[in-house]
């Protein structure tokens, strides 16, 4: 645009072509300008970053190269159908769309389409593309939390029904029989039975409380709480835990959120090994290295077919996804190695963060 006209445009308050180009380049979403033949004619820097191609590689290429190979023919049919009756299509239409990067990795996207005639003459479509990987992950985590809470409610309901409701019913019956018992020796024997059952119920309640909340963890720290957990695994499930906990002073200096995450991860993994692996022993090792705490829980049991932990949650592997979420919430990660008949190894790695939030 000539300097005089450019000055007149600015004085009028209207945006120049250069201004519109700056908006296009600065958009936080990837943007493509695609002609009626499906050829990419222009794109912004966010599109280059998202897909991993250079500008020379993308300009002039077909838009189908950005679609997973298995979906390209279907995408082409949809594009041709859209070209016959183009209309604005905003984001958030509930479409499960996938794009593919130069390295071949697919990722979920939302796409808006805005058809129009550009100043150059031909009809084009402006495609705005948003990577929704993080959004889908958060939505999955939300579903996961709801499912985990419901699963815990079912578990508590079964425990209360199978253990304590039955005890209370039996206690009521025994109490009625005791009232009518005339023989003193028989009454004493009945009282002894009732007292023994009450002690059993108290132990059951304590066991349930330890599963929900560990007083040892709050009062004496991680190492002591883990020792209690390992003893309970032997008493309750008959599974011996071969433990190697080499944290020294570190465990007493950790952020409470990190301590709780580590404890719950080990607790879940040990419980899974004790109840599902079909073993009489398992190994647990915790150590610190390079500013991280590494926990590894291993058994030589039956193993299982490991599905994608990012898929929709199900009861069978909900615990594994919960462990991964706990690790990620404190800045760590978790991996699981298993297969049918090959045992299972759970490995969690979390950063050593002090009570004030400083990382060592």
How would you sum up this structure, described in words?
The protein is of the alpha+beta class and 360 residues long. It is built from eleven helices and ten strands. It has helices at residues 3-12, 17-26, 45-51, 55-58, 72-84, 133-179, 184-212, 215-220, 222-237, 256-276, 318-329; strands at residues 30-35, 40-43, 97-100, 106-117, 123-131, 240-246, 281-289, 292-299, 333-338, 344-351. A five-stranded antiparallel sheet has the order 2-1-5-4-3. A five-stranded mixed sheet has the order 6-7-8-10-9, with helices on one face. Helix 6 (133-179) packs across helix 11 (318-329). It is elongated, with a radius of gyration of 31 Å. The protein starts with a helix and ends in a 9-residue tail after the last strand. Residues 309-316 have low confidence and may be disordered.
Brief rundown of the structure:
Helix content is 49%, strand content 20%. By secondary structure, it is an alpha+beta fold. Helix 9 runs parallel beside helix 10 and helix 10 packs antiparallel against helix 11.
- Give the distance, in angstroms, between the N- and C-terminal Cα atoms: 58 Å
Which sequence of strands runs across the widest sheet? 2-1-5-4-3
Note the total helix count.
11
Mean pLDDT across residues: 81
**Which regions have little confidence, pLDDT < 50, spanning 5+ residues?**
309-316
The largest sheet is: 5 strands, antiparallel
Task: Report the C-alpha radius of gyration, rounded.
Answer: 31 Å
Q: So what's the overall shape? A: elongated
């Amino acid at each position: 645009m000539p300097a005089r006209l450019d000055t007149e445009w600015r004085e009028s308050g209207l945006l120049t072509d250069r201004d519109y180009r700056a908006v296009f380049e600065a958009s936080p979403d990837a943007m493509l300008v695609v002609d009626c033949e499906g050829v990419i004619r222009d794109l912004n820097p966010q599109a280059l970053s998202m897909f991993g191609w250079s500008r020379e590689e993308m300009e002039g290429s077909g838009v189908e190269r950005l679609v997973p190979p298995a979906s390209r023919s279907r995408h082409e049919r949809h594009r041709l159908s859209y070209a016959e009756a183009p209309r604005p299509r905003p984001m958030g239409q509930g479409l499960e769309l996938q794009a593919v990067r130069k390295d071949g990795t697919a990722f979920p996207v939302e796409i808006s389409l805005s058809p129009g005639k550009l100043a150059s003459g031909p009809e084009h479509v402006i495609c705005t593309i948003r990577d929704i990987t993080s959004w889908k992950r958060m939505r999955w985590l939300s579903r996961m939390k709801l499912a985990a809470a419901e699963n815990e409610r079912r578990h508590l309901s079964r425990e209360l029904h199978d253990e304590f409701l039955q005890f209370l019913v039996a206690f009521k019956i025994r109490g009625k029989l005791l009232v009518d018992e005339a023989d003193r020796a028989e009454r004493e024997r009945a009282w002894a039975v009732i007292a023994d059952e009450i002690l059993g119920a108290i132990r059951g309640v304590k066991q349930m409380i330890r599963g929900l909340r560990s007083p040892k963890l709050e009062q004496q720290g991680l190492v002591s709480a883990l020792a209690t957990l390992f003893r309970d695994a032997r008493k309750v499930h008959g599974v011996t835990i071969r433990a190697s906990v080499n944290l020294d002073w570190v465990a007493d200096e950790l952020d409470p959120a990190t301590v709780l995450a580590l404890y719950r991860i080990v607790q879940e993994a040990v419980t899974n090994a004790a109840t599902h692996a079909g073993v009489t022993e398992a190994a647990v090792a915790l150590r610190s290295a390079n500013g991280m705490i590494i926990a590894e829980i291993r058994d030589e049991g039956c193993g299982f077919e490991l599905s994608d932990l990012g898929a929709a949650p199900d009861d069978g592997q909900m615990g594994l996804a919960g462990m991964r979420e706990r690790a990620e919430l404190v800045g760590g990660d978790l991996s699981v190695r298993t297969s049918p008949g090959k045992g299972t190894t759970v490995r969690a790695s979390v950063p050593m963060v002090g009570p004030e939030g400083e990382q060592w």
